[in-house]
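Example record used in the benchmark description.
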Amino acid sequence: MPASLGWLYRYDGEQLVDFSDVVDFAAVRALCRDREGNIWIGTANRLVRYDSGDFAQFDQRHGLPGDTIEQLAEDRAGNLWISTDGGLVRYDGQEFTTFTTADGLPRDQILGLLVDRDGDLWISTAGDGLVRYDGQEFTTFTTADGLSHNKTGGLFEDRNGILWIGTDGGGISRYDGQHFSRLTTADGLPSNSIGRIVEDARGHIWFTAWRSGINRYDGVKVETFTPEDGLVHNSAERLVVDRQGNLWIGTTNGLSRYDGSGFSSFTTDDGLVHNLIRALM
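Model output (C-alpha cells):
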C-alpha cells in the first residue's frame, strides 16, 4: 500500500486503487498494519485508523502530544507506538501515554521506530543518537559508544538479529547486541547518508542512499541501482518487501517494483495522483 502527499492507494495486483477521498489525508508519513488487521496511517496532522471500511481519526484532542506522526510500530503486547513531534506515544487501545525527556528520552522530537525480536523498542533521533526502551527505562547510544553518527534514521533487524541503523553522515551502523560496526563509502556505499533499510528473501540488505538510487548489500559488496537500470527515479524514500518477495521503492517521482530480474514503475500516468511517495506498507 503506497501513500503520497495527500493520497492513499491500495495495489490489488493489477492496478492502483485510490481511496483517499474517503477522508481528508494530509501528507501521509507512516503506515502500519496491526495484529487485528487494522491499518494505522500517520499523517502531518493526525493519526488515522482504517478498519473494514471505517476511518477513526485521532489528534491532540484525544491525547496525542503532537499531530505530526513520523513512524508507527506495534509491539508484542499489541500496543501501538507512535513517534510524534511532541514525544513518544504508546496506545493500548484505550488511551495514549506520552514519554518525553522527563522520562529519559534525549529529546521529544523522535523519528524512526522498531520493535526487535526481544520486544525492545528502538528509536532513532535527529542528532541525539539511538535509543532503546526495554519497557522500564531508556538507554541512549551515541558515537561515544561506537555508533557511526548521532543523526539516525532508518532501523531494521535482520534474520540474524543484527540491528541495522541508517545515519545521516556516518553510513550504516550495525549492532549485534554488544558492539557496533559500520559500513561507509570506504566500504562501497555510494553515500554516507542512508535512509530506509530492508532485507529480501535471500538475506540481501537493501537500502536507500541520498540521491543514489537503491543499493543491495550481499555481505561482501554493494551494488547500486539507478534509473539507468530501470528505477523510476534516483531519489528513493521508502522500501518494503511484499509477500511475494517483490521489492517496492517509493521515490520522489513515482513508485517502482523490483521482482528480482527487473523494474516496473507506476507514476501519474498509471493512476497515481502525485508522484511523491511518502509511505509504503
